[in-house]
Specification:
The protein is an alpha+beta fold and 71 residues long. It contains two helices and five strands; from the N terminus they run H-E-E-E-E-E-H. The strands form two sheets. A three-stranded antiparallel beta sheet has the order 1-3-4, covered by helices on one side. Strands 2-5 form a two-stranded antiparallel ribbon.
Length: 71
């Protein structure tokens, strides 16, 4: 992946975040120039959830559903 998961995990704790969505820029068909993303969700409790390559709209829906479930 194009991100440092340990650095992002530290960022979660440093600024007291519940979630970071880390978008891999190295996966084929993912990134800024593509219509899809491959995202790993890093949670403040140390958990991780790797999402399959999916449309950017689907990633956004998944993120919104996750946040709504916390409300």
């Amino acid at each position: 992946s194009a991100y440092d998961a340990s650095e992002m995990s530290q960022s979660l704790h440093d600024v007291n975040l519940d979630l970071i969505a880390a978008n891999s820029l190295l996966e084929p068909g993912a990134g800024f120039a593509a219509d899809t993303n491959t995202v790993t969700l890093l949670y403040g409790d140390g958990g991780r959830e790797a999402l399959p390559n999916m449309s950017k709209f689907s990633v956004a829906q998944h993120l919104l559903d996750k946040v709504k479930s916390w409300l």
